Amino acid sequence: MKYAHVYTLFLVFVFHTSCGQNQTSVPKDNTSVGYTEAQLKEAETTSFPMGMVRSVRRARNGDILIASYLGVFRYDGTSFTNLTGKIISPRFSSFWDVLEDRKGNLWFGARDSGVYCYNGKSFQHFTKKDGLSSNLTMHIYEDSAGNIWIGSSRYDGKSFRNFTTKDGFPSNSIRLLLEDKTGKLWFGAQGENMFVYDGKTFTVLKNKDGKAFNNVWSIIEDKKGNIWFGDNGYGQGHDPSNYGLWRYDCSTFTKVSQRGAFAIIEDKKGNIWTTGTVNRNGEIWALSRYEAKSLYNKTPTVTEIKSGGRMEFLGILEANDGSIWYGAAGPRSGVHRYDGKTFTYFKSTAGQQ
Predict the structure, then answer these.
(1) What pLDDT was estimated at residue 326?
(2) What is the pLDDT confidence band of residue 353, given thresholds at 50, 70 and 90?
(3) If we measure between CA atoms, which residue out of 193, 217, 216, 221 comes closest to residue 205?
(4) In the structure, what pLDDT confidence band is assigned to residue 20 with cuts at 50, 70 and 90?
(5) How far is CA 54 from CA 18, 140, 211, in A?
(6) Buried-most residue among 180, 181, 228, 321 (CB within 10 A)?
C-alpha cells in the first residue's frame, strides 16, 4: 500500500532550509571526557580526524564527511580538511553526526552544544535557546520535504517543532532514522521502542511474541524495499530474543543474525554490511558482511571482515570507489578504510596496517 508524502501531522508546509550567522555558545572542555592535554594540542594542528568517529557520510559530490569527536572533516580523495576548526576549538567540540542537505548546507551535530549549520560562507548555531528539544545531537536526518530532523526536533527552515507524546508519539526520546519509499517514517532511540508513522497511525513494532524492538540505532531500506535494522538492547527488562540484525518485508520480521548492528549499509552489489557487537556482552565489536546471494537463506553467509574491542567499529559508508569507510572509538579512534584487501588507518602519520 502506498502512503502519501504529505503527512497530516508532520509535513504541513515545505520550506527551503538555509543557514545564516549566529553567535555560538561554548560547551564544556573535552578534557572532562577523557582527552589529555597532549591529544587536544595535537587535534588543533593535525589534518586527520581524531577522537571517536560515530558518523561517516557521503557529500553530494562524493567526498567523505567524518564527524570526529574533535572536529568534522571532509576527505576529497586526496586530503582531509577540517570544517569546524574555525568555529570551535577541538577542546570544546564533541561532534557526533554530520549531514549535507539537498541545498548544500552542512549540518554538524554536537554532544552537548546543539547543532551547527554551514552554508559555505557562514555558520549558524542552534541550541535549546533557539527551540531545539535538546543540546544533545546524536542523529541528523533530512526528509523528502527538505525538513531537517535533529532528534525529536524538526526544522523547516524557519523554526523548530518539537514532538512529544502529546503529539501522539509513543516516546519523548526519539530519532527519525528513515523515511522509506512509501513515505512511512521510522523512529528509534537508545533504550526506546521502535515505531513507525504511516501518515495516520503510530505503530510500536513488535516481534511475533509481542516483544517490542528496543534500542534500535540504525535502519536502512534495501533496493527491494525491505527494512533492515539492529536491535542492540542490553540491560534489565530487555528481551534477549530481539537482540541482533532483523529484516522486515512489510509483513514479517525475520531475525537474520545474532550479531548486533550499530550501523548498516547496502553496497552496490547488494551485500549488507554492519558494524556492531558480536554478542550481547558488548566486549567484541566487528565489521561484518552478509553476502547478497545468501540474504534470504535460513542462515545467511556472514564474513567477519575485522574484529576488535568495544566500539572499534561505528559509523559505516561505501565510497563511490567501492571502498568501505568506518569510524572507531577506543585505542584505534578515528576513521579507517577497507578497499577489499587493505585496511588504512588515517592518523597523523597516515599509517597503514
Answers:
(1) 98
(2) very low
(3) 193
(4) low
(5) 25, 12, 28
(6) 228
**pLDDT: which is higher, 238 or 287:** 287
What's the whole-model pTM score? 0.89
At which residue does the C-alpha cell 558494524 appear? 275
The cell for 101 is: 542537505
Q: Which residue has the higher pLDDT, 11 or 97?
A: 97
Q: What is the model's pLDDT at position 237?
A: 52
Amino acid at 245: L
Q: Indicate the SS3 state at residue 54.
A: strand
User: How many residues are given for the chain?
Assistant: 353
DSSP-derived secondary structure for 142-195: E-TTSPEEETTEEE-SS-EEE--GGGT-S-SS-EEEEE-TTS-EEEEETTEEEE
In the predicted model, what is the mean pLDDT of the chain? 86
**Sequence-distant (≥ 6) Cβ neighbours of residue 177 within 8 angstroms:** 139, 141, 186, 187, 188, 216, 217, 218, 219, 229
Whether 172 has a pLDDT exceeding 80, the answer reads no
Q: Output b/e per residue, 276-290; b: 16+ Cβ within 10 A.
A: bbbebeeeebbbbbb
Q: Name residue 64's beta-bridge partners.
A: 58, 75
Closest to 264 (Cα-Cα) out of 305, 202, 222 = 222
Give the 3-state secondary structure of residue 210. coil
331-339 — which CB contacts under 8 Å span 24+ positions? 332/308, 333/50, 333/51, 333/52, 333/53, 333/69, 334/48, 334/49, 334/50, 334/51, 334/53, 334/68, 335/48, 335/49, 335/53, 335/56, 335/66, 335/68, 335/73, 338/287, 338/305, 338/306
Residue keyed to cell 505503530 = 203
The vertex-34 CA angle with 126 and 134, nearest 5°, equals 25
